[in-house]
Write a structure and sequence with these properties.
By secondary structure, the protein is mainly α. It is 40% helix and 6% strand. Strands 1-2 form a two-stranded antiparallel sheet. Bound molecules: heme C.
Length: 169
């Protein structure tokens, strides 16, 4: 489970998680905070489930190329089971582009936050990652991940879904 905090905002509970799952939280009436804290465990669980459920819908777009789940296999794209915490470019048996593989060999391990930054423009992300590592010479060619997901909420939700299939809990 994630560490999470909940805050009572006007009529609803909002949860925020560390890192990419951090959500627009505004603490309204301070005196309500104590009440919010008492039910935080429950409401956090709910909010997270909702994100992942929405993320499952978003993931349908990814399923053109990716599979996820205990029996999932590589397809057009690498299997995404356990992607959070996995080194980039290391799904067994998948023929990655050099740039995706090179990023992993130079320290890219997928976290929620990094996938959040990756999805809007995978190629630009990998190039920047390698360049920042002083490996501009490897930041050439393009990734085979020819898909971009710009919408912030959709990215948060799909990552919550990916997280369900990761072992790093
Ligand atoms: C049109 C096909 C396609 C779609 C749609 C697609 N991907 Fe990919 N994705 C790929 C391919 C192919 C790769 C391997 C990239 C490479 O080798 O450069 C990849 C790589 C990845 C990686 C890096 C995997 C690793 O092991 O390093 C992640 C993370 C990822 N995709 C997430 C997603 C998510 C999340 C979605 C949906 C929002 C999505 N992809 C949609 C084809 C796709």
């Amino acid at each position: 489970m994630h560490n999470c905090q909940c805050v009572l905002t006007s009529l609803r509970f909002r949860c925020c998680f560390p890192g990419p799952k951090e959500i627009n939280v505004v603490a309204k009436p301070l005196k309500m905070f104590a009440i919010a804290a008492t039910v935080s465990a429950l409401s956090c669980g709910l909010a997270q489930a909702q994100d992942a459920a929405k993320g499952e819908m978003v993931f349908k777009q990814c399923m053109t190329c990716h599979r996820i789940g205990p029996d999932a296999k590589n397809a057009v794209g690498p299997v995404l089971t356990g992607i959070i915490g996995r080194q980039s470019g290391t799904a067994a048996g998948f023929a990655y582009s050099p740039i995706n593989k090179a990023a992993g060999e130079n320290g890219l391990v997928w976290s929620n936050e990094l996938i959040m930054q990756y999805l809007p423009d995978p190629n630009a992300f990998l190039k920047k990652f390698l360049t920042d590592k002083g490996k501009a010479d490897l930041a050439t060619g393009s990734t085979k991940m020819a898909f971009k997901l710009a919408d912030e909420q959709a990215r948060k939700d799909v990552i919550a879904y990916l997280d369900k299939f990761s072992e790093k809990k």
